[in-house]
Write a structure and sequence with these properties.
The protein has 563 residues and is α/β, with parallel strands linked by helices. It has helices at 3-14, 45-48, 52-66, 86-100, 133-148, 164-176, 179-184, 186-203, 206-219, 223-247, 265-274, 307-322, 336-348, 382-400, 407-424, 436-439, 447-460, 478-488, 490-499, 504-523, 531-555; strands at 37-40, 70-76, 79-84, 114-118, 152-156, 278-281, 284-287, 296-299, 326-330, 357-360, 365-367, 370-371, 432-433.
Amino acid sequence: MILKEVIKSAVCCYFKDEITMSNIVVENPKERKMGDYALPCFSYAKVVHKAPNVIAEELKVYLVNHCSLIERVEAIGGYANVFLDRGRIAEEVLTTIIAQKDNYGYNDSGLGKTIVIDYSSPNIAKPFGVGHLRSTVIGNALRNICKKNGYNVIGINYLGDWGTQFGKMICAYKMWGNTEEIKKNPIDELKRLYVKFHEEAEKDPSLEDLGRKAFKDLEDGDPKSLELWKWFRDESLIEFKKTYDLLGVSDFDSWQGESFYNDKMDVVVEELEDKHLLEESEGAMIVSLDNDLPPALIKRSDGATLYITRDLAAAIHRKKEYDFAEALYVVGNEQSLHFNQLKQVLAKMGYEWNKDIHHISFGLILQNGKKMSTRHGKSVKLHDVLEEAIALSKEYMMNRNSTLDNIDLISQKVGVGAVIFNDLKNYRINDIEFHLEDILKFEGETGPYIQYTYARIMSLLENKKNIEFSFKNVTFNEYEWYLIFNLYQFADVIKRAKENYDPSEVAKYLIDIARDFNKWYALERMIDEDVEKTESRLLVAEATSIVIKEGMRLLGIEVLNKM
């Protein structure tokens, strides 16, 4: 049942098809007490030659008589404010949620279509920094949301495992490396070697040439270079997977990094050449672009490829491999120029599907208004942040309830969930502030607040014993109705989140659901002598728990039965 469509159809009949359904607007009023829906009548005045307030008055009578889902309509200042039949709608919403459970809110708009999502993508031989948190959790949430909209979704972890930095790393290892130290602490030791290379290169610039040559050897398939590169990659992935396990993000369909496209770039370069798009500039090969974009650098003067060369090969390969309807790249705002260049080069190559590529950009993680870093200005390891969140969560949990079973597991779910929720409740393009003490609070717009609401409902539902509920003679009070009507909106939220590539639609919705439930819970005696009332309230609580659990799952967060 799509209520807005039912109302639009009734309004369309009132206008006798003078105004089509696509031109009929059904809004949510600014305040709930003004009605469940509002119909602004101003745009219809010229078509039907009546004043907006007259149209609203006529709709007031017509809709009550011709739409059985409407209880009453109020005409106020050119608006027809619609109040639905609460009992009938509540019965439909609650029985649907209870029957469908975690399938509730699913739609098949994406059926038969594939979306490829490129997300997370940490750099090999470097710490998995907190800067990669946003790409990882936004991408994971979008993957879940797209699936909920019926799409086949391919999640790709496009690892940063190729490029000149690996030539420098190989040089650094040959000059200063210690195999045992790398085995003991791979990421930190590889990073130390990389930093040392740059420090030494400042004193001796010829090292930069050595690094570029070493990468060229790697590209050309030198066995020793490939052996070292593979070792660095394998050790890095072992460390990365520890962080993914903590986040609950590990089911990528592909771990193909930039290196996978090493043998596929020559074909792309040849195609650019065949289509007369390549130009020489100071020994390098470029593609000139329009709209004031700087040229795309395809090959350096030494013949080495660049990031955009690999991305071109990757995009073409993914289109052939998956025939995607959309390709999403979850990458920071600072890469906007790169993706504009990528799309335009593909367009010049004649690939019309370039318009199906979308850069899902996002802002920075800030602490006190500055980019998050350690006291010494170094990037912060994501694993360290998660461990700190878990430890602080455990401290809070012990203070609240020291008798909890499985306190370590609960603390992990609360701590990690808090970090993820803090990210996803914000519109992704905005920078976000990060303060552990704030994001772990059990009140306000936080993950623990949602998780605690769910646990409260689970405790309440222990009183529910095979309820055979009938909707006869049941009335719903104001707060109960607000909650039920909000539960109905879940499907619309999921659609909007996909259309806008915005998980914050789901996170903000869950905050509203939790607030509605807690307001109702505070005002209502849930377990009453009146069995029918108790059954009714427990049914609403159960429906609420289903929506919260599924909404949190879409965000990549687990709920808890006890806290």
